[in-house]
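This section describes the prediction task in plain terms. A model, or a person checking by hand, is given the sequence of a single protein chain and must write out its three-dimensional structure as a string of tokens. No templates, partner chains or ligands are provided. The sample shown here is typical of the held-out split.
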Amino acid sequence: MPDPRHRLWARRLARLCLVIATCASGISVAAEKPLVVFFGGYGATEADMRLWQQAAAADPVYGRTFDFEGIPYPNEAGSNVLRAVAVAEPTLDAVANRLRAMPGRRIVVAGHSSGAALAVSTVSRIGTSETIKLISLDAGINTELPPALGFFPITHLECWSAAAGDVLSFGYRRAQALCKDSLFVLRTTRCNTPICLHYSLVNRGADADLTFKQSRVLDHGISGGYANFSVNLDWLAHSK
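The expected answer:
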């Protein structure tokens, strides 16, 4: 007849194995969440990107589904996107190398405004990948930038802009020219200016009468476009 003590230890061992397996499974699931790498546009500071990343991670819908990383714009380069890509080259190389080391993981590389040039340049450095999606937020990506080998814009690229009635976002026309039939439009009633709509793609709290000059004003490192910040991640709707 089996020793009762042996049965007791067997049950304890089985429970321990179950706990270990459950924990391991949870770690695996968490590690496999899609990663969103977000490049801020011209004027986006390190403080802006910390604010964006923290708010994105806390979002009640997308914060549970994605991991997030925000990268500031190299503002010493000015608004010239080709110069910005050149200045940011060490950062773009480092990001591309990290993403290349994540085979099989779903990745969204998004760029807002001039940051879209940094996003496409990063993707171009990675090479062929069926798991990477590129999103341009209110920007016409500079055509002088080299396309990634095996990167097909029709299947890999999404463009988003915004509109409030007849008022169109700052980069709407450029995005429309680039993406044509694959342009998605976020509609709102709270913005009165094109630059408010431009920022509303990432910040629902952008001032309704925001001007370009105001969007560049810094307050404790936070730019005017990120003031009164309320994260907008609706452009991830097709990436779940």
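For orientation: The chain has a mean pLDDT of 84.
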